[in-house]
Structures are given as structure tokens and as C-alpha cells.
Amino acid sequence: MSLRKKEGDEQAMASLQMDQDTARRLFAAGGVLLLLDLPKQSEFGVDCNAWTIGPKFKGLKMIPPGLHLIYVSAASKEGHLAPRVAFFHNFREKEVLVKKWDSKNEELIAEDDLEIVNRFRLNLLNLDPFLAPYPFQNHRRWYSLSYDLNEQLVGRLQPANKLLSSQAEFISKEFDELGESSMKVDRQHPTRIRYSDKQGLPILLYKEGTEVRFTSIPTPRDDVCSIAERTERGADSSYALQSVLASFQNPNEILGELQFAFICFLLVHMYEGFEQWKLLIHLLCNCLKDLEKNERLFLDFIMVLHYQLKFVPKELFVDIVSKNNFLSVELANFFDIVNECERCPVLKEKARKFHCFLIKNYRWDFKVDDDYKPVIVDSEQHHLS
């Protein structure tokens, strides 16, 4: 087995070692991932760690029971890396999970034949030299990013095919409706059917089964209400938050989705994850009425965001967020709202500490210009003058 460090902090390779008690416990109860036929020089990652694999690599052993993210970027013969493909899996004690890389279709295939899986299980002793130990010393970092996630919530959010990809799979609208006949040009079909939007661009749809099923965030324009109500809902996300929370079994599942979106963006390199993360941040940072009612949720929200920001290199948020002044503006609104809530002293104190942490570590300016404050412009207003 050979692994070469690809991502992670300076402790990444040291984390391949662990104390003897932990090693014995994980050896006895830990899960095993067999990842077969993945080309050498491919990227392989689990949770917060990624490596370039060698020719002898066949998988991972001593995986702590619980939810984990596995991801790969297969290398071509020329050494070029394919888009990252990932999946979540909730490992049970002593579970053996077998995945094979299909080089023809460039996809991971699960081995579902229990007899074949059992053969691998019986042969684990011979496979052991080709299996890397789970980097347990970094497990806390992964837990800090995923503790509100569970198997049920992942099942709700992940694509129907259970695979996440850094490169979205699209098909044209005409192919979706007509199949391969949309490509046919003959006497009966002298021209190809093409659908386009107002800008003349082709209309693209997600390939069936590949779209992440993020929760839809309602907007004021979605509601049938007066202009005054629409403007109020544009400035206060409380109504939208209650609508979203009603779709979950418990309130903290919205924080689980916040973690899911962040993980998709940061580790799977999915832009859609970043967009959903921003929508959820905006939703949670602009609730004027529901602070006291949902104080526990907002206390937990601060912790989730705190761990996310600690994990990400400061330079990343400078490049991605601060140029558009997104996160500092949203948090400035949040801190102002919390500061005005007289009945939430615990939340106020926690928000104050988080505010100090951000100023100290990121030197962010939390002054909000009027240009960034929420404004709703309704088309009906143009007909009122």
C-alpha cells in the first residue's frame, strides 16, 4: 500500500499513526473500504484527508463506525485527473464495503453480491498490506463539520444515484423530451429541434438521478400576498424559516443541510453546494421575529458556522466570499438583530464572542452599507403611479 499526501494540514501524514488502544479497538470494530481497480496516481480521499495513491493501494481499514465521505478523482494514462466523484456512507461495525472503478464508464460501481463481499471479508488478512489505516487523529475535524448530519438526512439530500460530482451532468431539454431522435436529421426531420432561453442559450437539465435534492428556500415572490407583506418578508426571513423548518423532522436538520452543503462545496468541489450554503446563511442571518422562539437553533447555528470557518484557510474566504462582501454583510445583519433582542442573553453573549473571534482572526468589517440591506422591488409598483 502506498499513499502520498495530497490535501490536509501538516499533521495529515502523522495522523496515519495512532495509539495502540485506539488501534486495537478500530482493528476489532472498524469498517473496511475496498476500492478496487482505481488507477495509480488517482486521488483518493476520506472525510478531511486526500492522497495520491500508488499501484498497491486497495482501500482503507479501521474506519470508525459512523457517517463518512469517500471521494476519488481517477487518473488517466496521461496523468490527468477526472472530476471528483464522492459518496456518503454510514459504516457499521466490522462492515466491509466493496467498490470497483469502472474505467469504461468512468464511475464507481458498488459490489452488491453478498457472496462476493463475504469472500473479500474472509480474505482481509491477505489484503491487509494493501489497506491504509483511517487517519484517526483527524477524525475530530471531520466530526466538527458533520455532527448534525445523519444517514436519513443524507438520503434525503443526496442525488437519487447516491453519487456527488464536482462536474454536474446536464442534458439538453430536447434530448430529455425526445431522446436520440432529437439528434436525427433526415427527410422527415430536415432540421434539429432545439430549445433555447430568452438569451438564445440552450436549455439544459440535470441528467435524471444526478441532481442534489437541496431544500427549496421560499422567496417573497413565491407568496400570494400584498406588496407590504412581500416587502416585510423580504427584510425578515422568519416566515421563510418557519416554512423550511416545517419540512424537517426536527429544527437542527436545517443545520445538517448547512453542513451537507458546505461539505459538498469544500470537499467535493460542487458549486451548487456553495450556492445552497449561501442561501441558508442568508435565511438564518435575517430572522427578526424568531430569535427567542428558536434561540437553541441560533445558538447551534453559531457553533456550526464557527467550526466551518475554523476549518477553511483564511485565504479561501478572502477570494470567494469577501470580494462580494457576502458573509460579512450577512453576519453584520445577524449581530445587529441579536443585539436588539433583550430576551436572549445567552444568545447575545455567544454572538458577542463569535463577533470577537471573527474580528480577531479575519479582520472583517461588520458595518452594513444601505446598498446591501434587503430591498424588494415589485413589478406591480410600476403600475401604481
UniProtKB/TrEMBL annotation:
InterPro entries: AAR2, AAR2_C, AAR2_C_sf, Aar2_N, AAR2_N_sf. Gene3D superfamilies: 2.60.34.20, Aar2, C-terminal domain-like. It holds the Pfam family AAR2. It comes from the Eukaryota. GO terms for biological process: spliceosomal tri-snRNP complex assembly. Signal peptide: none annotated. Residues 30-159 form the AAR2 N-terminal domain. Residues 214-367 form the AAR2 C-terminal domain. Belongs to the AAR2 family. This is Protein AAR2 homolog. It comes from Soboliphyme baturini.
